[in-house]
Structures are given as structure tokens and as C-alpha cells.
Model the fold of this input.
Amino acid sequence: MTYEDFYGPALTGLTKTKQQICDLISLYSSENPDHAKSVIYCCSRLKTPESMIQKLKKRGLPVNKQAALSQVYDAVGIRVVCSFAEDVYQIAAWLKNRAEFRILEEKDYIAYPKPNGYRSLHLLLQMTEGEGSGLFAEIQIRTIAIDFWAALEHQLKYKKNLPHEAMIREELKRCADEIASVDLSMQTIRDILRESSP
Ligand code: 0O2
Done:
């Protein structure tokens, strides 16, 4: 099934919303020269019809465009990858003050990691301006170290009958905790360097 088959005329608004949010992230770097290097990269996607259908079924929702656009918030997904945990919160604070959308919910999986070790800050929002006004989107903000972990962990979602699955999950959890500890140490070193700079 194509994106057009599933999302119909809403596809234009979804695509514009995705671009509008990506442009905003670029603006963050140019408006905040002190934080110009905070964002390592930003990527975006429209949820594929297959992935959306799977999510609707999993939640027991009707499998149609209306439910996809009104009851699932991440048809438009943006991922912002930063160097340090501090950057994650600074970008989130800046995004929360934008007029282009209103934040519906903040999920802080950095302060409150998922049991598998997943850490990220998610902002669920609704557009208030532009062609996609009224549409929902999710912005995920995380450090590059955790992004590296999440990309590998995400592969588990698509594996069936994986040998040694419990061991792999346990090992991934250990890696996530080590990465969180490294992120914290890197932040501390950055703070010390900043304080001691001439
Ligand atoms: P994709 O392929 O990224 O689009 P749910 O899917 O119901 O658990 P919910 O309630 O929609 O999640 O919201 P949440 O927790 O904000 O998660 C939405 C997205 O965050 C997921 O999208 C993933 O991209 C990411 N995410 C959440 N938890 C994990 C995790 O444990 N590991 C990894 N690697 N990513 C995670 P989708 O829909 O799963 O898929």
C-alpha cells in the first residue's frame, strides 16, 4: 500500500508538517550560535502504512486514516540527535516556546528510562500553523550515544524466534546503562572544561 493510498489528501499536510519541524530545528542552530554544534543531525519520517496499521491493530483501534491521524500521534516523526544530555533539554525547552505548535505531552525517558534501558525525550505536539494545522507529530530528542543503542535495539522488534533472546535483551540493557553512565561523565567533563576555559 502506498502512502497516498493510506493517508489520502492528508499526505500533503503531513509532508509539510515534517518539513516545517525540520526547518525549525535548523533555525535552532542558527538562532543560538552558542549551541550551533548541539544538534549533530536531525532526521524525519512519515510512518509507513504497514507500521501504522500494525500500531492501530496493537491498540485495538479502527484501521483507517481517521484513527491514524487522530489517535496515533507519530504519523510524523522527527528525531533530533545531540552530543550531550544538556543539549537535549535545551532544545526541548526552546521547542516548548514555539508558536507553530502546542505541546500535548512530554515523555522523559531520560529521567525515567524504559525497563529495557531506552532513554530519549519525546515531545508529542499538535500543529497550530501551516498546511498541517491540527495534525500531530512526535519529536524524539536523544544523545548520539543512545541513538546508536536505539538503532540496534529497534531491530529486535522485527526478529521472530531469535536464539538467546533473553541474553541479548539483558546485554542490551547493560549497554544502555553503561551508555547513560558515559553520557553523564562526558557532560561532567564538558562542564569542567567550560568552567576552566580562559
Ligand atoms: P517506529 O518504527 O520508530 O515508527 P508504543 O509503540 O505504543 O510503545 P507510543 O505509546 O506510541 O509507543 O509512544 P512512545 O513511547 O513515545 O514511542 C514511540 C516511538 O519511540 C517508537 O515508535 C520508537 O521510535 C521510539 N521508541 C519507544 N520505545 C522504544 C524502545 O524501547 N526502543 C527503541 N529503539 N525505540 C523506542 P514505533 O511506533 O515503535 O516505531
User: Anything to note?
Assistant: The chain has one domain: 3-149. The radius of gyration is 18 Å.
